[in-house]
């Protein structure tokens, strides 16, 4: 128990020591490292937030996303309602709405600006029942899933025609795929620059304390004991860099929202941007901190192993 308390006290002391060192030693180098970490996290996180908001915005649009199922002309209303209920119970379908032949006729007559009786001219209603379905996100994001769903619906003996705007799905999927690819590419490039900056920062700190490290090795200190403060240095850089990234990202996102709404107002729309939620923010802090600690550990271990007491 006593050794555990001693270990905790030592770690707290190291964390406090490293925090003070961030301000007092090589202040500009520390600011540069924090800036690089913040930039590395900010740009991909902004793309991620834009992608999430884009998906949420397009999910509210129904034009082009609907699949219209036209039933055969001899299908009565009872069977049509049963088909609608069967489709709606499918987990791949978000919603289903039945448009009866009478409702279709009224809508058609209204679009022409005439009475529905004038359209019929004492003949039977030639329009079929139709079911308008909205597929789930899993179906929308996969062309194969969409094709499979359409094929299964067509196999129904009561279905005459299935109309789906495949171009809409292709456009939405191509935009989201492009945004994902750009995010990954930019994040990879910035991650490489982050690793180089951290390696340079930690290596310089090790060289700055070279004489102290030599003395510590002479009195029997292990490499693990010496490396500890540099790992905490990476921890502080990761935490502070992520905090700056969150602050910058929030400013960029909500500033952009105002300008995008100026454009959206022309089309009678309004955009509400959602930033990162608490769960996503905690993941970003955890990834930033752990990544910086790992890079700092590897860099410090490599530099300290090269120091031999004279």
UniProtKB/TrEMBL annotation:
ABC3 transporter permease C-terminal domain sequence ranges: 185-302
Enumerate the transmembrane spans: 27-51, 178-199, 230-254, 281-300
Q: Could you provide one GO biological process annotation from this protein's UniProt record?
A: cell division
Q: How does it sit in the membrane?
A: Multi-pass membrane protein
Sorted keywords for this record are: Cell cycle, Cell division, Cell inner membrane, Cell membrane, Membrane, Transmembrane, Transmembrane helix
Q: Which residues form the FtsX extracellular domain?
A: 66-162
Q: Which domain of life is it from?
A: Bacteria
Q: What is its main location?
A: membrane
Q: Which GO terms describe its cellular component?
A: cell division site; plasma membrane
| Location relative to the cell | Cell inner membrane; Cell membrane
Report the InterPro entries cross-referenced here.
ABC3_permease_C, FtsX, FtsX_ECD
Tell me which family the UniProt entry assigns to this protein.
Belongs to the ABC-4 integral membrane protein family. FtsX subfamily.
Q: What does this protein do?
A: Part of the ABC transporter FtsEX involved in cellular division.
| PANTHER family assigned | CELL DIVISION PROTEIN FTSX (PTHR47755:SF1)
Protein name per UniProt: Cell division protein FtsX
UniProt source species: Ruminobacter amylophilus
């Amino acid at each position: 128990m006593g050794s555990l308390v001693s270990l905790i006290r030592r770690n707290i002391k190291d964390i406090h020591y490293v925090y003070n060192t961030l301000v007092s030693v090589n202040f500009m180098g520390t600011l540069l490292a924090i800036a690089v970490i913040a930039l590395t996290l900010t740009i991909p996180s902004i793309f991620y937030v834009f992608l999430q908001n884009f998906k949420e915005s397009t999910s509210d649009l129904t034009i082009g996303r609907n699949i219209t199922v036209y039933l055969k002309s001899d299908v009565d209303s009872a069977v049509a309602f049963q088909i609608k209920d069967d489709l709606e119970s499918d987990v791949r379908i978000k919603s289903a709405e039945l448009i009866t032949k009478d409702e279709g006729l009224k809508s058609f007559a209204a679009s022409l600006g005439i009475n529905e009786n004038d359209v019929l001219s004492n003949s039977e209603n030639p329009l079929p029942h139709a079911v308008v379905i909205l597929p789930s996100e899993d179906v929308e994001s996969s062309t194969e899933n969409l094709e499979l769903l359409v094929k299964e619906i067509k196999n129904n003996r009561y279905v005459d025609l299935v109309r789906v705007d495949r171009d809409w799905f292709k456009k939405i999927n191509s935009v989201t795929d492009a945004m994902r690819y750009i995010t990954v590419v930019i994040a990879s490039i910035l991650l490489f620059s982050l690793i180089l900056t951290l390696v340079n920062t930690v290596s310089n700190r090790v060289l700055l304390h070279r004489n102290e490290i030599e003395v510590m090795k002479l009195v029997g200190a292990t490499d693990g004991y010496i490396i500890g403060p540099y790992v905490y240095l990476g921890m502080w850089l990761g935490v502070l860099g992520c905090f700056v990234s969150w602050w910058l990202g929030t400013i960029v996102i909500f500033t952009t929202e105002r300008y995008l709404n100026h454009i959206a107002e022309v089309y009678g729309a309004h955009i509400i941007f959602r930033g990162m939620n608490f769960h996503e923010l905690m993941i970003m802090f955890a990834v930033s901190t752990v990544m910086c600690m790992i890079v700092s550990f590897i860099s410090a271990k490599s530099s300290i192993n090269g120091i031999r007491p004279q």
